[in-house]
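Listing S7. Sequence submitted for prediction.
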Amino acid sequence: WWGFFRRLIYILAPISFALFDMSIVRVDFWEMLIFWVPSHFLYSLAMGLVSSATRTQRWGQIIDTILMPRLIAPVFLESLGIRMKKFKVTQKTKTKKDHSFQYALPHLLLLGLSVAGLLRFVHGKFGMALIYSSVILFWLAYNLVNLIYAIFFMMSRPQQRKHERFLAQEELTLFFEGRSLTATTLDIAEGGLSFELPYPLYLPDDRPLAAQLKTDREEVTFSGEIIDVHPHGMAWRYAMRITKVPLSQKPGLLQIIYDRSPALPTKINPWVTAVDDFINNMVYRIKKPLPEKHTLPRVPMDMEIEGSNGMLIRLVDFNYRFATVQLTQSSEDADRLTLPLSDGLTLRLSTPVPFPGGKGGFYLYAVTNFRELAYHPGMPKFLQARLHLYQLRKRESAEMNHPLRHPIPSQADESLTA
């Protein structure tokens, strides 16, 4: 328990020498090299042999640095027989209150002193003077790394979800509009789940869907709604929020979620250095918020079609309910469009809304026959062909190292979608 006080001394010792010229350890360079360096090396080697796959000497010191400011006083008082009479229960719910700056104040103070000591100590030193100062420099830098980790910990990680998600591949069946669809989940939590489909299938986004989750030992039913759809590699990932779970089904759902190994690292990657961790932390914290969510799959089409009015029209993308269209020429008959996609598939559009700015002739149309297209047996094959063609063009564009020029096929060149 006194290791936390020892950690404070270990941090303050090089600071006092480098910043205030106070010597706590009186030893010259060669004595340090003969006694301390072998001791530090052998201690690190011994700790590496007895440590577990998820705990190393470095992480042990980081954890001691994190807890040190909060445990020195309680340990000292307990040693004097002064005990805490009240027991505080750790809050289990996630709140939006941020106390990270308050908790990190001791570490920020020690970090500032360490940086100031490091700058003062190297000032005016060159050549052999730096070599003889290497032990203090190493000591300060070592403590800096631990303090930065502690500050990251106190700042906590950005919370994107209310419940923790677990990777799980379980059988999921959805029921909607007299139809059923079977898929495999990717992950699951108390508040929702995600699953993957090989092509962008239409799932109603304006009403809850009945769902059944099945494992070898449990089978539960609940209601949910689609909240996000986006490409996931060569497939499409659907995110679903669980909106209603019957009371009788709740224990079974919790059993499915938590009856598995925790989704935590089982070992520390020895090739990941402190620099890698620092960069990953900074990138994760400063990256932009999650992109706008779409409840329907936005499918890139990038095809030029001759409409029923004889106008040449470029279909940019569509999501079953709406389609983005570029009119290559102005026409008074553009309020309603009929676009033949392939044999048996026709896209009917109405009520155009120009894009902001009105440049480029881009319009957003409502699809009037989206249910007919959504449940047409030839729609999956057509979409897979269009996506395959789009990926090929994108790959060729990347290899040529120039922006996508949108080579648009004519309607006659539709062998992929015939």
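Caption to Listing S7: primary sequence and predicted structure tokens for the chain studied. DSSP finds ten helices and 13 strands in the chain. The two ends are 74 Å apart (CA to CA).
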